[in-house]
Amino acid sequence: MPIIERIVAREILDSRGRPTVAVTCGLRGGAVASASVPSGASTGAAEALELRDGDPARYRGLGCRKAVANVDGPIAKAILGQMLPDQISLDTLLIDLDGTPNKSKLGANAILAVSLAFARACAAERKVPLYQHFADMIGQPLRTLPRPTINLFSGGKHAGGQMPIQDILLVPTAATIDQCLADTFAVFYAAADLTSSRYQTRPLRADEGGLAPPFASIDDALTDAVESIRRAKLEPGKDVGIALDVASSHFFDHGFYNVGVADPRTPQGAGAHGGVPAAQPVDSLGMIEIVRAWVRKFPIVSVEDALAEEDWGHWPALKDAIGKSSLVLGDDFLCTNPRRIRMATDGGCCSALLLKVNQIGTLTEAAEARRLAKDAGWMVTVSARSGETEDNWLADLAVAWGDQIKIGSITQSERLAKYNRLLEIEAETGLPVVKWPG
């Protein structure tokens, strides 16, 4: 039975150069493992709290020394020498020790780093791969590898807001991770060439490695994505689909969406679903019609956060409008929070969960979020954050828990660490990629 003999935290930097937390956990049996946690830029209001120092003279207040001190202090005091039979025992102890609804006392970054490091140390002690340990945690056999959804174009908070929506992603349909990445490479560099010549800009990249040219409209960005697939000698909708991360909460204000697209319900907007700036922001039903028009016009198989996180009354209408053609994926809307997922399943709001472990703060709570989603018949996309580290535990988690994985683009080492781990797991297991879309 695992007994923690050593727990040490340190402040490290994420892919944006901002501080985050890493923890090393040592067990009495000799197993030692470390884990680091990511941080998000596009965060939901219901997310667990990342504890930051607030000192403007150091990292603009984003330092994590308080979170590190909480691991080395009260958390270490509570767990060192404790007999912890499983992950639930540790995570429950940490949740109780914090005692707040959003982990604001100790910090979700501190708590999650301990939760992950313990899991990795337990896997090492059991002498099993981390993905197998994660699968055993939820009592599920390993059957498939997750299908990648890979960032191509970025806007919103990931790219300085040059277009309102956050990400346009590629969904390669190949049967292996290896071929999915090769197809994505072809499309990405076709897009880099296309946008460089079309917009006379360098191929600038956003937080998650996606391209970020100055599109005149969202419709232009989607059109360029389709053209890039064709330039890579692949067929849009057959070889490669498209996914959207709309992140609508970031342009939602007092009941209206400032998406910069004409309302299709008005004569002014008829036939101009992406290319004509709206004179006025649109209401929720107008936003649904805009998204419906995109799904009809382009090979879109997944739409994330098409409505704002508190626009609860209209999510069922969104699902009715696009749910037969596309996943209706909740990120900020759900925040990997079991309470919100129960409300969404009861209300018929979604068909998929974007699972981000640091939104909730422990592996145990994230496993419960996953269980609720799967019990409702939803798909689960295990997701990275915009501020990532070189740690690759996310790939193992997605293999064990996910139908899809969302890491970012095929550039930047913090993203490639996860893709390379997927390639390694594919070679080890020979598992097929999940059959989706189609």
Structure notes:
The chain is α/β, with parallel strands linked by helices. It folds into two domains: 4-127, 2-Layer Sandwich (Enolase-like, domain 1), CATH 3.30.390; 147-429, TIM Barrel. 38% of the residues lie in helices and 16% in strands. It contains 13 helices and 13 strands. It has helices at 65-79, 87-98, 108-126, 130-138, 177-199, 218-231, 284-297, 315-322, 338-347, 357-360, 363-375, 393-401, 413-429, and strands at residues 4-13, 19-27, 32-36, 147-154, 167-172, 240-245, 252-253, 256-257, 300-304, 327-330, 352-355, 379-383, 404-406. It has an eight-stranded mixed β-barrel with strand order 4-5-6-9-10-11-12-13, surrounded by six helices. A three-stranded antiparallel sheet has the order 1-2-3. Strand 9 (300-304), helix 8 (315-322) and strand 10 (327-330) form a beta-alpha-beta unit. Helix 3 packs across helix 4 and helix 9 (338-347) packs parallel to helix 11 (363-375). The chain starts with a strand and ends in a 9-residue tail after the last helix. The model is unreliable at 269-279 (pLDDT under 50).
> What is the share of helical residues?
25-40%
Share in β-strands = 15-25%
- Helix/strand order, N-terminal first: EEEHHHHEEHHEEEHEHEHEHHEHEH
By CATH, the superfamily of the largest domain comes out as Enolase-like C-terminal domain
Low-confidence stretches: 269-279
Tally the helices: what do you get?
13
CATH architecture of the largest domain: Alpha-Beta Barrel
What is the top-level CATH class of the largest domain?
Answer: Alpha Beta
What is the straight-line distance between the termini? Answer: 44 Å
Rg, Å, rounded: 21 Å
Number of domains: 2
Query: How many DSSP E strands?
Result: 13
CATH fold-level assignment of the largest domain:
TIM Barrel
Catalytic activity: (2R)-2-phosphoglycerate = phosphoenolpyruvate + H2O
Protein name: Enolase
Keywords: Cytoplasm, Glycolysis, Lyase, Magnesium, Metal-binding, Secreted
Domain Enolase N-terminal: 4-134
